[in-house]
Amino acid sequence: MGPLTIAFMLLGIAIGLALLDLIIPSHGLLIFSAFVLAIVAIVFGFQAGTTQGLLLIALVGLLTPTLAFVMIKWWPHTPIGKLVFLSQPSEEDVLPDTDAELRELIGHLGRAKTDLLPNGAILLGGRAWDALTDGKAIDAGTPVKVVDVRTGRLVVRPAKPSDLASAATPVDEDAVLAQPIEDWDLDDDDSSATG
Which residue in 50, 78, 170, 180 has the fewest CB atoms around it within 10 Å? Predict the structure, then answer.
């Protein structure tokens, strides 16, 4: 076996060791071994001739950045790389509700979940939303109307009686029971038919 054949075999083993470092955590020992084998391969290349030695230097010079690029791209997808790198959160985990989604809620009625002084939370459609008032403090439990969206929050004001009367559905289920019976819109004909 000639020195050039040995040089190419050593270079192949060096590439294999470098790729093996992706799978086996060796704390750089396999990469160091691959580097040493590449140097030894270049020495064997020069024993075969100056042209062959220069050819191996050029080959190692081209393979090193290519192999490094492949390793950087491939390593996060290996079992070890997955343990090292955190998974990226989804857009739903990171991004707040879009202003477009929030703007659809303008005009809707809800109920203050917490005191709004001026920030707090409201219940709207069975979901809690961050909200702020348009100026006045609002007590928890007060019916509110969404009037604007500002900095990713709903801007609310206390609901007027006309807002509550024009609502097709009550603010929430507890709101009906919290109203005095005089405010219930019961017809005498309906109550006599059921009673």
Answer: 180
> What are 98's two structure tokens?
């879009």
pTM above 0.85, yes or no: no
The residue ranges of every structural domain in the chain are 3-84, 97-180
Mind giving me the DSSP string for 8-76? Answer: HHHHHHHHHHHHHHHHS--TTHHHHHHHHHHHHHHHHHHHH-HHHHHHHHHHHHHHHHHHHHHHHHHGG
CA pair distance 120, 117, nearest whole angstrom: 7
Count other Cβ atoms within 10 Å, centred on residue 74.
12
Reported as a single tens digit per residue, the pLDDT across 158-189 is 988 887 777 644 445 555 555 565 655 555 55
Specify whether the CB–CB gap between 132 and 153 falls below 8 A.
Answer: yes
Residues with Cβ within 8 Å of residue 7, at least 6 apart in sequence? 41, 42, 44, 45, 48, 52, 56
Q: Which tens digits make up the pLDDT trace of 78-112?
A: 777 777 777 666 655 555 556 778 888 898 999 99
